[in-house]
Structures are given as structure tokens and as C-alpha cells.
Amino acid sequence: MKIGILGAGNVSLTIAGKLLEYENNVMISSRDLNAKKDKGVMGMLPSPKEWKEEMETKGLSAETGSFADAAEFGQVLFNCLNGVASIEVLGQIPGSTLADKILIDIANPLDFSRGMPPSLTVCNTNSLGEQIQELLPATKVVKTLNTVTASLMVNPGFLAEDHTVFLAGNDRSSKSWVETVLLREWFGWKNVIDLGTIEAARGTEMYLALWVRMMAALKISNFNIKIIKPGIQESGR
Amino acid sequence: MKIGILGAGNVSLTIAGKLLEYENNVMISSRDLNAKKDKGVMGMLPSPKEWKEEMETKGLSAETGSFADAAEFGQVLFNCLNGVASIEVLGQIPGSTLADKILIDIANPLDFSRGMPPSLTVCNTNSLGEQIQELLPATKVVKTLNTVTASLMVNPGFLAEDHTVFLAGNDRSSKSWVETVLLREWFGWKNVIDLGTIEAARGTEMYLALWVRMMAALKISNFNIKIIKPGIQESGR
Questions:
Q1: pLDDT grade for A61, boundaries at 50, 70 and 90
Q2: How many other C-beta atoms can be found within 10 angstroms of the C-beta atom of residue A177?
Q3: Among the CATH numbers 3.40.50.720, 3.40.50.300, 1.10.260.40, 3.40.50.10710, which is that of B2-226?
């Protein structure tokens, strides 16, 4: 499958690398294909061009391009841009390029302007997922994976026990493909909860306010939550 | 210990009943001690007076009074009022009555005026926990237990596995008492995470936006989340 990824940062490269393992054709995208990104303690990320060469040495066929190129290229698209940039970049791509395609929105509308921990640029009575769906009414927006760090998105088995990922979106068949093929088959998730329409993106985005504080308390970012229900004997109550 | 509970609803009665098992003297409080509450599908709650009589037939010594009575009575206080009422009621109690006492804030600032699921009346750059701490600077506000349904607050063992409860507050020794005595010894919690100052109430209150949608998807309210970390072999990474 041809998959276009909006972004070329840590989340984009992590997801692209995993998708390439399943014989997909993947294009990552950036304003500047020669720019390396400094991720602080996480080190330097390769530029898109360097990353493409690295993939080619592994025999994997990866592409690079502009945001518009990736949107045109992909049968399925990922939004891995930061929250603030998402609306601006998506608004510059012709809606017809994006029509009828699944857009998997992984972004969080984090506002770092007040320092750490970040707040959200939109929340409570709206969400980034809903804003994107409103901007692109003919696109099938599915919000998922925004509640875990990049490495866990494609390798949930790294944690000691099963844990939970959420889905929100208006189009049932798109959510079904995302759950069955992308999350379960390719990425290895076992515990997927569909929270309903894209409005439920408010829930998974606002959870970030708890996530950033758990990260600070636990001093790790590769953790997640698991839903615990009543025991088998009591589950009918 | 003498414990005053602001409120006489389901959360108040659940917590009061558990505290009475540990030889505490407990006062619940309400505007009207004769009013029963209709909890819809959960049935009718007894009036405070009926509840007191019910406890007395079990040989447990419970008290009822006004909000000011409960604030005066308790060495430790619980805010089990609804979020919208909390600031109004606490603002009418003389601050000197509340000074130096631990106030355990269980309330969530839920706004049902737009229908279900509720939004929050305050969030993102502030929280109900912070508003209460600001209103009562001499009181030791500890936010906890607001992320689970009433029955689980005092009976976490009902679920199939261990799960997590959070703490936020400015006073370390107050949080230590709440964690050690209240949560672990009396209520039976094994997994308690201290998220830091009362500012972290933003995290646990905003999580409600996810909680209400999980409740709708799971069709139960007696669930909770457990933090899952990397396996033992990888935990140093």
C-alpha cells in the first residue's frame, strides 16, 4: 500500500520504518529535505534525504517529498506533524487530494509556550481531531496512537503486560481497517478500544494533561495505561 | 479520628461507611438532612438522617450536620460535593475553621449543561483543586480518588488486577498521611502515584474527559487504569 506521512520527525520515522517492514511504499515529508532535527537528549535525527539513503541500504524503498507530495502519494495518510502546525499544513493541501482518504491523526495540540508541562491549544469543547475533520469534511479522519510515545506505537510488546490504545473517528469502515490491519496486524496491538466518533478525540487529547505528569513522576516516557475491569466472577454486575 | 465530609451523596456515604469501619467518628453534611436523593438507575439514596439511623443499628456512631458543622467537626475533611457547588460551599465556611486541616478533594468540575458526555467547567490552565487551594491558602488540599467511581474508591480489590490512584497536593506530610493511612491502610490501595503539587490536579481532572468516554464504550463505571512499564529486563532503558 502507498502511505504518505506528513512529517519527518521521530514519530514519522518510527512509523515509516515499521510500515516498510510490511512491504508498503512510504513517503515521509518535510519543508526541507536536507534538515536534520536536534531532539535534545534523544540526539540528532537524520534529514529526510539521509533517512531515505539509510532505508535503501537496507533494501527498503522509501520516498521523500513535500507535504503536498506525500498527500498526493498516499492511499492512506498519517498526520505526524505537531499540533500547532497540523491545521496550517493541512489547510494548504488541496482538499481534493485528501478526499476519501483515511487520515490517521497522531498529533496532540500541545502548547509549550507556558513552559513544562505543556497545556493544550484546544480542548474540552473541541479537539484537534475534530478541527481536522471539520477542515477536511471529505477525508476520513481517525484519531489513534496519540496517547503513547513513538517507540510504543509500533512496538507495544515492549511493555511488561498488554495495554490499551484508543480509536476515534466518524467512518466505521476506516476505523475497522485501522484497527485490524494497522494496529493489530502491523503494529502488534492486542487491546484496542473504539471510543466512538471523532468527538472522542477530546478524551484522548485531554488525557495528555495526565500523561505528561505521569511521565514526570515515573521518569520514563515508554509507559502506557491498561484498562482493568472487575474480575471474571463479578463482571456481570 | 474525627472526619468531616462535605456532602451526603453516593460518594459521601460510600466513604463515610468505610471510614466508620476503622473506628473513626464521621459526620456527613447537607443543606437538608431530611432530603433523599434520586440517583436514577442507581435508585434512591437515604436521607442523612435515615443513613445515621441505619449506621446506629449497626452499632456505628455517625453524625450529620450542616456543611459548616462538618467543617468544624473534622480534623480531616473530604470535599465530596459536586464540582460546581464546591467553591460556593467552601467559600461560605469561615477560613479559620478550615485552616491547617487536610481537605481531601474528590470532586470533579463536570459541566452537564451541554448534555452527555460532560465537559469541564475549568481545565487546562487551572483546575478545581487549585481553585480550592487558592480559596483556602491555609488548608492542606490533597486531590485524590477523583479518577474512579465511588465503589472502587474504598474497594480497589474489586477489580481483577491492581490499578492506580493519583495524589496531588502542595503539603508533603499531608500527602504522606493520605497515601499511607487513608489510601493504603483503610481503603486498600496498593498502587499510588504522587504527581506533585496541586497543579497536577489538572491532569487527573482532565482525564475525566477520557474516563466518561471509556465508561460509554465499556458500558461499566467500575473500571480503572493501571500503569504498565517496560518489562524487568528492559526497565533500565
A1: confident
A2: 17
A3: 3.40.50.720
